[in-house]
Design a protein that fits this description.
Elements: H1 13-34, H2 38-58, H3 62-86, H4 102-123, H5 138-148, H6 150-171, H7 183-189, H8 206-215
Helix pairs in contact: 1-2, 2-3
Length: 227
């Protein structure tokens, strides 16, 4: 239920806290995409997610706020840091992390932000939702999700499962396409072919290779090499 918009000035304590948390979230998000150190980007992302969780708390959505902390801050960021360590990605300042299309990216980002802000302001300019405690509890959200939004919820679950399987397949380096008979893949993975009898070892010194070739050289006219 919506009510007419009250005057903005003077702002309430909740509105001041919400504005401050929004500034922190926007500033840390900008630092995520502008820093050249991957670990610092992950840490700034932690701050952005924490500020969003604070915004949810101010809006009386306690369940969403704790889900934000537990899943995004406690799982996604830890997974990102473990991925950085396991893949031995560069941790310090790296020029490869900087894109040459920075001007185009800034224009696209500003245009997208302008469109989103315009749509939100135009749609909710004359509406105001009072902050009543209990509206963001787990019971109300669970009832809404599994009664009205169960089909999009299950479709999103299948999409995430497909993305997880695709990530596993792309990260596997031992999966190679088999040939028509399978001999090419077995040859690539199997041991190297043994050298024929009498062939010199390529890694042996030159003198040893000459001795080996002279010992296994067959004399002309069918004579035997032994006595």
């Amino acid at each position: 239920m919506t009510t007419p918009v009250p005057p903005f000035f003077p702002p309430t304590g909740q509105e001041i806290v919400l504005i401050l948390l929004g500034v922190v979230a926007i500033g840390s998000a900008l630092l995520v995409v502008t820093t050249r150190q991957l670990v610092h980007a992950a840490l700034w992302l932690v701050l952005a997610f924490g500020a969003l969780a604070g915004c949810y708390l101010v809006l009386t959505a306690e369940f969403v706020a704790w889900v934000q902390v537990l899943i995004y801050v406690g799982a996604v960021i830890v997974l990102l840091l473990f991925g950085i360590m396991l893949t031995r990605a560069p941790i310090g300042r790296t020029a490869d992390l900087d894109s040459g299309n920075r001007k185009v990216a800034v224009v696209v980002a500003l245009a997208t932000a302008g469109v989103l802000v315009t749509v939100v302001i135009d749609g909710f300019r004359h509406a105001y939702t009072p902050l009543e405690p209990g509206a963001g509890a787990a019971k109300e959200l669970g009832t809404s999700v599994f009664r009205n939004w169960v089909l999009p919820f299950e479709a999103l679950s299948v999409l995430l499962l497909a993305a997880l399987i695709g990530a596993i397949v792309l990260s596997r380096t031992d999966i190679r396409p088999m040939g028509s008979s399978g001999t090419e893949a077995r040859g690539a993975d199997g041991p190297p072919p043994s050298a024929p009898p009498g062939a010199a070892d390529p890694g042996a010194p030159p003198g040893a290779r000459d001795d080996a070739s002279s010992r296994h050289h067959t004399p002309p006219n069918g004579e035997s090499g032994g006595k």
